[in-house]
Amino acid sequence: MTPHRTKDRRSLVSQISELQTEIVHRRQVYGRRVAQGTMRQEEMDYRIGSIEASIRTIQWLQAREALFRQRCPEAFGGAG
């Protein structure tokens, strides 16, 4: 079992980290495609922007995690 992993759940921190790593990878791949003319810069920006939006969503959830745990303990494996 990896750190930050419980069954099929990943911590919000690890999800954010993985998405940030993915952005770095995609910037390299998409950058090559843009340079080769097989992808438009606008498409690259849109796709990376979508991942960045996902990070912001998870960060929003992370900032409210304690509240969610309190109000919805069953979602976190607690008594419902």
Question: Which features would summarize this protein structure in a list?
Answer:
80 residues; mainly alpha; 3 helices; 5% strand
Residue share in helix: 55-70%
Outline type: elongated
The major pleated sheet works out as: 2 strands, antiparallel
Low-confidence stretches: none
SSE class: mainly alpha
Number of strands: 2
The CA-CA distance between the termini, in Å, is 27 Å
Query: Beta-strand level of the residues, as a percent range?
Result: 5-15%
Task: Give the averaged pLDDT, no decimals.
Answer: 90
Please write the string of helix (H) and strand (E) elements.
EEHHH
Instruction: Report the radius of gyration as a whole number of Å.
Output: 17 Å
Output the strand order for the largest sheet. Answer: 1-2
Helix count, per DSSP? 3
Brief summary of the model shown:
Helix content is 69%, strand content 5%. With 80 residues, the chain is mainly alpha-helical.
SSE layout and pairings?
Layout: E1 5-6, E2 9-10, H1 12-36, H2 41-63, H3 65-71
Antiparallel strand pairs: 1-2
